[in-house]
Design goal:
Helix content: 40-55%
CATH class: Alpha Beta
CATH architecture: 3-Layer(aba) Sandwich
Shape: globular
Distance between the termini: 50 Å
Number of helices: 6
Largest sheet: 6 strands, mixed
Number of strands: 6
Protein name: Histidine phosphatase family protein
Strand content: 15-25%
InterPro entries: His_Pase_superF_clade-1, His_PPase_superfam
Radius of gyration: 17 Å
Order of helices and strands: HHEHEHEHEHEE
Keywords: Signal
Amino acid sequence: MNAVLPMRALRLLVACAVAACTAAMAADGWPEAARPGAVVLLRHATAPGTGDPPGFRADDCATQRNLSEEGRAEARRLGVLFREKRIAVDEVLTSQWCRTRETARLAFGEKLPRDEPAFNSFLGQAPARREAQTAAARDLLARWRGPGALVVVTHQFNITALTGIGAASAQGVVVRAGPDGGLQVLGTIEP
């Protein structure tokens, strides 16, 4: 009997957490992205395939999955939407992968994006390295105060590790740092 009660409590806790995440995913994140100090975690635009090909090198775009024409159009559309919705973007960080850099450049222009290794893809990395990188990314995001939005163009695995939510190509998850340093999911944005 004693083991049953904690199991029921655990199931209830998990159900509540899933419901909260589902509600946040359904929420329109654009109004939240416009609020001072917002953080938008964007998955790079469409780059066909999964992971990176054998022989991948971060310093050579020819060895990587890159944006398709559809992905380039998505990235440009994101930039238009940020301007139409009057999202003040103060800073744009990207992973060091070409598909994230190109997404950021097409959406936000040449001058704004800056590489941040904490947002590099960690697909295939050892769990300890993934956890350390996610902690570094979370710390960086928790320090953001604005006044405008911080946009981070990164990878689906990174977004999921930070928020518990997957993101489709060119989709964003809007978050804000909580008082405990954790990230509160406020909604999603679509291209």
